[in-house]
What does this fold into?
Amino acid sequence: MATRQEKAPDAFRTISEVAEELDVPQHVLRFWESKFSQLKPVKRGGGRRYYRPEDIQLIRTIRRLLYEDKFTIKGAQKLFREQGVRRVVKAVDGGAHAAVVPPADTASEPRSPQDKARLRAILQELREIRALLEGGDNGSG
It folds into this structure.
């Protein structure tokens, strides 16, 4: 039986080989397939998965975004959608962190009037709590 080191770099790999190589459990790889439509290993008889080199690179990118850069799954999905899979994979593969972070202006602004109203209400409530903590309402501040 051939070991991972004996396979050519462009050879397909089984789920167990990928899981071992990237230190990601097999069930997590299957879960990521359901969450990232871009991840589509070749499936052969009996549903066995075979990952191509580009699949492995995508998994490596997803792993880094989720585990190291602390993205949520939704955040990583949005990043792929907005910046494109190739660009994100290339940036992460090159060691860039900031290159794949959404611009602050689009990430921080509320998108709807309801969001803005809710944020104003939260801000007002926080101000009231701060005033209570500082003793502003009882004359001791």
About this structure: DSSP finds seven helices and three strands in the chain. The first helix runs from residue 15 to 22. The chain has a mean pLDDT of 82.
